[in-house]
Amino acid sequence: MIRRILTEGIDEFDMTRLDVYRSRGGYQALAKALRTMSPDDVADEVKTSGLRGRGGAGVAASFKWSTLPADGRPRYLILNGDESEPGSFSGRMLIQKNPHMIIEGALLSAYACRMARVFIYLRGEFYEGAEIMRRAVEEARAAGFIGERILGTDFSQEVVVHRGAGAYICGEETAIMESLEGKRGHPRTKPPFPTAAGLYGMPTVINNVETIANVAPIVANGGAWFAAIGPEKSPGTKVCSVSGRVRRPGNYEIEMGTPLRELIEEHAGGLEPGHELKFILPAGASSALIQPKNLDVSLDYDSLGAIRSMLGSAGMLVCDERDCAVHVAYLGARFYHHESCGKCTPCREGTGWTERVLHRMEHGLGRSGDTRRLEELCRGIGGRKCLCLLGDFSVTYLQSALANFHDEFEAHEHGGPCPVTAALEVSVR
Amino acid sequence: MSSNPPAQSPAGARPAVDGPRPAAPAVSPPPPATVTCTIDGKPYTFPRGTLIVNAVRQVGHPIPYYCYHQKLAPVGACRVCMVSVLGAPLTRPGMGPIVTTGCTTPVFEGLEIETMSEAAKLARKQVLQFLLINHPLDCPVCDKGGECDLQDFTLGYGPGVSEFAERKILRRKADDLGPFLVLDQERCILCQRCVRYENEVTGEQNLVLKERGDRTVIDTGRGEPYSGYFSGNNTELCPVGALTSRTYRFKARPWDVRPVATVCQGCAVGCNATVNLRGDRIVRLLLRDNPQTDGGWLCDRGRYGFGHTTAPARLDRPLIKRNGELVAASWEDAVSAAAAGLRQGAAVLGGGRLTDEEALLLSQLVRVGLKTNDVDWRVGYQTFAAPEAVGMQGAQIGDIDGADLVLLCDTSLLEEAPVVEIRLRRSAGRNTSVIDLGPVRNFRHGPSRRIACAPEDLPARIAALTPDFQAAKSPLIVWDGRGGEALAEAIRGLGARVLVPAEFNNARGAEIAGLVPDALPGYHRLDEAAVFSKAWGAAVPSATGRHTQAILAATGGDVQALYLVGANPLRTFPDGALAAAALDRVGFLVVQDLFLTEAAHRADVVLPALGPLEKEGHVTNMSGVRQAVRRIVSGPSGAKADGEIFRLLAAALGATLADVPAEVASEPVRLRLPAGSASTPPGEGLRLIVRPALFAGGGTAAHDPNFDPVRGGTVVRLHPEDAAELQLAEGDAVHLQSGGTALRAVVSKDGGVARGYAVLAAHVAGVQGLGPRVRVAPARAEVTVG
Hints:
Helices cover about 40% and strands about 10% of the residues of chain A. Chain A is α/β, with parallel strands linked by helices. With about 775 residues, chain B is an alpha/beta fold. In chain B, α17 (about 550-555) crosses α19.
């Protein structure tokens, strides 16, 4: 079911304006925390809430916070706003429509973890989002929510908005730090993990912007309130991005545990009449396809994991019978080839090879053995051989497509027009 | 030679010993210094922190890798060093082994490593296949062929056939990156060794990654030529044929060449190197690690400075001046003419480029053949070579690594001892603070405290640093010996160890051999002359001789003949006018050199000598380390080794040179230093200072064809504001006018030059002839002067 916490009011009001955000209760959680709570109290509320990371892996936010070493070194908080996956656009909406909730959450998180500085890292293509966020930060600073002695307390905090140069890899938590340090966006080897040696070698927490946006409502209403929303192990809401073959594509904030069928058929308006669901590409094209038979799966981390897929960023690309699996696979391969950072061999060379094979298949130049070749490429790239997880992401969806639609791939080995869509009246390309 | 060095002796690895373990201490034991793990079923113990890749290599198992390099931090990029591992925390209990990269994973207690598991072999095969899909496979014309890790590892671990049937990506090939480097972007496997070297070692970032994914290429930042003194190391770090040396291009295959160990004699660092000979020609130099001297790197001057051995300008027969013309002569005629001319009132200058043995022979020749102590190796700015000789405590090159304070006293390590600067760059700002003192900024690739001052103010500025030196635990001073007693006294006052880059590669060997007017070999006092007389079997004069300045001033007087041994005071002596006048006045001039220098043109007899790499013996480096050098190439057939020439001259003079040095037990003498530079009187124009420049100086660099690309015109460096006041722009041609002389130069704006100074490179023709002040005026294109 729809449950608006992060998106509450953003359709009716201009929440980018500080006065509007404040008139709807904004920055009261910050005031409450600074005046009545210790940093540990704030951290405890977030722990009680059971908030899990919204960026993909679903690690408990409080876990990252609790692993920070108490050794006196400065600590940094990075908000990951490098939303770059195909079909994921919830973060962009929050950044553009509700920047103050992100800032307030960042300030509360920084208070809880005694951060030296907060960096809001935004995707390079978010020109507009970065402008809105910068304006919001300046407004908040002018109103005394950022800077020295916030709200007259001893708490001081600086917030830096940084827009990247446009790279999917910079959403990876170590590449984001390299990028912030002014270096090329390449992932680092782990260990050391960012909480031990992150940005500038200091203990660093990297949280998704949506994760952090949840902190203000958690502090305002209490961790127990949040924990009671949705399933016990995946509390809260998730903003899902639905795109593709649905009648009302868009972002929908739903309670965790809402069935996928409800999201697609009720909120997103279902598929166009006369068409049937073929598969859904979830998690921003980084995980296994969801088959129509699994449409009743609950939208939470564990339920999707149980069907060997992922909630991830909850970007849902809906495909119907007009969509050839090879075509979708080609689009994915083009993305991963274009975005491979090039640091490690399997991803750098393998994604390019994969795209070239799929490009041929897609353009009527398939050759015998191409399907087997793709399967071998997936094995060559995947299986944790790459330096970062993005190498595995680039093959997970493809392996799933190959397994589920093997005949469509094999049909493309003989060249000529797409045998899947040729039979259909409407061309999709 | 493979660019992966062979596995080191397994000193750190030994099979685990069975038996009772010592009882654990009671309270919070520190983690043990060693861990025991198994490699292919056998237990081994390693120091904690040892990377799997090194552990596996140390016990003698082969493991392929490209990105990892012992001299660089691990990066985990190539993914070839895959091994199977089992053990928490890498694998969870109940889980089977996983494959991981050996270069990013340290060994830990209980780890089980399988180097040749099916999974690891398959993973390597897959990665090696990936590495070749966009590689041009142009091995037949690739300089790396035969010593290429891509060839070797593909043969050893790769798939026999490639499944790749798509189009390869085309990129830039045979791209001249700079004076010495050629880049082939298609051959590059993006291991980033070069990029990391440019980051971690030189800090110059001349090579960077551009673009993304499989479009990634190595290039210079803005596509500009590579500019730096350490480019050649990249060609040895590169595991494939992407970065190669222009001088080695299409010259040889590794099986064509014969490796010979040597020591670079380009400067006084004494970097170790391996010469590769094809037939009787040197085709390249490779580095040969010596932690004491080079620290595992070579500079381009050393690596590529072998072209002089076959330079067309080399002297290959003696010359005698007849009717004002130098004409070819036999050795017999030349030696007897030289001996006849030197018999009366001779003085000797030079010797800083000889071997230790030759310097000692010259020292004897001067004393027993020419019967004088008028000898001085110091024909340039440097006033001494060994700090111990002037009452200072000497330092080793390696001491820079552990120094917490380094004072650069008007001295550029980069220009005078380039490889040593790499050490300072790596420690500066981390454990070492650097003070960069003098009229020109000398340390430009790391943090430093810059104190600009005039040369004559150095002693006072140094005295003011006393508190810094008292607070430092292991301070170090780098001073090239320019200046005089006043500066030396100030430096002694700081009480720190001193490192002295030398103007001539074996200055220290010359000094200890007694090529100075006030000491005999071993810094023995002249009043020990009797002991030396006995050892050498001939009378050794005991009267103090004259130093270079006095010798030059006395020509035409009681210095009737001058013998220049590898010396060209016209280019090196600070008072160029005195040097020129002296060579004009002197009654008889003998020049012994590799090339027909400005001095040789004025000589009565020219004796062609063999150069470094053409004779054997020892050389002493800037911190006193003696190293053997070998005769690697024969040199011009008509030239002779300096030592042999000294023996011929001695025989012609009726003297015999002993082979054994004298054993004397007296206290060493302290060398006298000149008083020091007086301040330049105020006047018109800019104050001229002359400072060493790597490719400008040196007797061989000036004639080495390999350095043609880096030998530009004369450059004058000016502070940008001085240039602006003179309405001069970068690259403008100017005349430097001083008294009656003028020199044409090109302007280079340099914020590191203090205001009011014009800086020229030392050891360049025409520079020493200018006075202490110059007027800088735009040159009109049609006028050529100088």
